[in-house]
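We append the chain.
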Amino acid sequence: MLINDQVKLLVEKYSLTRCARCNFCESVCPTYAATRRRVHGPRGRIWLIIYLSQGIDVNSDEYDGLLSCLNCRACNQVCPAGIEIAEAIHDAKALLIRSALK
């Protein structure tokens, strides 16, 4: 199975397209607070996962944003859509690392 097919399954499993872009998750994210860069916040990470599922090329800075997640799960607590953001990010990171090791 291709990596973007596996990422598509994550998008569906966690219903990532329900993201309302409200930015509540960014308000509690420690990596976003440190850098103030969207790629280092949960919202940016969600959309990176969605872009990967669509086969859209992303740059190394965007990958770094995904990998910088501390998995503190604060984003899960404030998401009005009830998305398990931290779990989706964790699973996406695992897929990317496994694919890089092949």
